[in-house]
Write a structure and sequence with these properties.
The chain is globular, with a radius of gyration of 17 Å. The two termini are 28 Å apart. The chain contains eight helices and nine strands. The chain has a single domain, classed as Alpha/Beta hydrolase fold, catalytic domain (Rossmann fold, 3-Layer(aba) Sandwich), CATH 3.40.50. With 248 residues, it is an alpha/beta fold.
């Protein structure tokens, strides 16, 4: 399921992924309250993960972007089965936006927890690069693979990490380690904010900071004609076609 909150679209896009066992509806209110008022020319796309068996959930199906096998082992070292398929799905959503006139350079990929992990994995391995990557209470999965495949152009993409110092689900040191790993890959604009007494959750202070960062990496004073031209050029370069064109 995909919930799309549209507020004067075609200028910029923010694609946000919720956590395991969460849905797009859980984040819709946060987007409406904290982000839409100061970013009225932004389309927010909030996809829900597919329902799949999760090892940590004793094999029972639940919404998840990929399999999680343990809470005790550093997640960056886990295989994360299903991660590649989820990245392909996010790429499909992004390409749909390109066909509607929004190039990757006006996209931000962001998410919470497992959604944040998927955002990092997708954003750091995508070319042409996006405008920014946000990881809230998440971590970088398959870090060695990302380092080996990181496009040179992505090193200029802003990356925003945020974590609670009381998080017992995704340990703060995993977030810090991912931040340092991304820095070590040569990514030039990486921020890491830690929020006191915040558990595995998002609080108003964090959402306010995140909204300010979004507005910074997706400035509104951009010519619509130039944005559409860049999207058309990207669509041509990637061989993207609309369903209407396929039908013809």
């Amino acid at each position: 399921m995909v919930l799309v909150y549209v507020s004067c679209a075609f200028r910029r896009t923010c694609c946000a992924q919720p956590a395991v066992q969460d849905s797009c509806h859980g984040w819709a209110q946060a987007v409406i309250q904290f982000m839409c008022p100061q970013m009225p020319h932004t389309r927010f796309v909030l996809p829900t993960a597919p329902t799949v068996p999760v090892t940590l959930n004793q094999g029972y199906p639940c919404p998840a972007w990929y399999d999680i096998t343990s809470l005790t082992v550093d997640r960056s070292q886990q295989e994360c089965e299903g991660l590649d398929e989820s990245r392909s799905y996010i790429h499909k959503l992004m390409n749909d936006e390109v066909l509607q006139g929004v190039p990757y350079s006006r996209h931000v990929i962001a998410g919470f927890s497992q959604g944040g992990a998927l955002s990092l994995f997708t954003g750091l391995t995508t070319s042409p690069p996006v405008a920014g990557i946000g990881c809230l209470s998440g971590y970088l999965p398959r870090a060695e693979e990302v380092q080996a495949t990181l496009p040179e152009s992505v090193k200029h993409t802003p990356v925003w990490f945020a974590h609670g110092d009381s998080d017992e689900v995704v340990k703060p040191e995993w977030g810090r380690g991912s931040f340092e790993a991304v820095q070590g890959m040569g990514v030039q604009s990486v921020q890491h904010k830690v929020y006191r007494h915040m558990a595995h959750e998002s609080l108003p202070e964090e959402l306010t900071d995140f909204s300010a960062w979004l507005a910074e990496v997706l400035p509104k004073d951009v010519e619509t004609t130039a944005v559409r031209a860049a999207a058309a050029q990207q669509a041509h370069a990637q061989g993207l076609v609309t369903q209407a064109a396929v039908a013809e």
